[in-house]
Amino acid sequence: MSGFWNLVLIFSCMLVQPGRRWVTAQSPTETPVNQPHKEVSVNIGESATLQCCLSEKQPRMMAWFKQPTRKKPQVIFKFFSTSGETFYNGFQASHFQIDRYSNCFNMTILNTTQSDEAMYYCALITPYLVFGDGTFLKIKGANVTIPSETSKPAVSDNSIVCEPTPYGNNTNMSTQENTVIGLGTAFGLCALLIFCLTYFILRRRKSDKIETSIEDYSGMRQIQESEAETVIYTAVQFNKKKAKAEKRKTGLAENCVYSSVK
């Protein structure tokens, strides 16, 4: 059992580490991804420029995402410092213009249509995804409700699983995430402990039943063997008495015959 508890301790230490987070944290004074405009409005057919600046001077990887209302986000393109932009999910490079200024990656949507109305997120990959606040592109004349501030990008086909990091309240967010991770780890360890205890109890009961069955079987066998010996012994005694009786009877007959001859 000591080896088992050592494994549980090692497992808990690996999961619960101070300051460990699944999403890169933001500094209260510096935003890794800055999208200065929460909303941009243009007329149909006009061009719309969405601004995004990163805290890293020479980022290796970044991406732009599009999330229509009540739909999953899709990656528009990813930028790699070694190969440039790569477009995904059927987005055409001719419909977009990427302007890079130092650590800023501004995306201009050319000849906008109503289908371009959506929430756009700029993300830094370091290697986790760190999202900006997002910019909602409103096409004038389109009846689309602006998504709430709590909406977050979900999983897309060609993106890393993550969630946006809103600006502000970073300390509370970090505390909540650490609390959730700690509670999840505690529940997991409790479930593992309950499973192990149940297994050992059932195994002990099964072992006790087997030992009891073996003892009962041995006792019954001894009783049966004792009864068999008694029956055999009685039968042998009966045969001896009968033989003696027959011998005595024969002797008497011989005496009688002998007497008659005389």
Automatic annotation (TrEMBL):
One of its GO terms (cellular component) is plasma membrane. It is found in: Cell membrane. It comes from the Eukaryota. PROSITE patterns: IG_LIKE (PS50835). The keyword Glycoprotein applies. Residues 1-21 form the signal peptide. Its main location: membrane. Keywords: Cell membrane, Disulfide bond, Glycoprotein, Immunity, Membrane, Signal, Transmembrane, Transmembrane helix. One of its GO terms (biological process) is response to bacterium. The chain crosses the membrane at residues 180-202. The keyword rRNA processing does not apply. Residues 28-122 form the Ig-like domain. This is Ig-like domain-containing protein. It comes from Hemibagrus wyckioides.
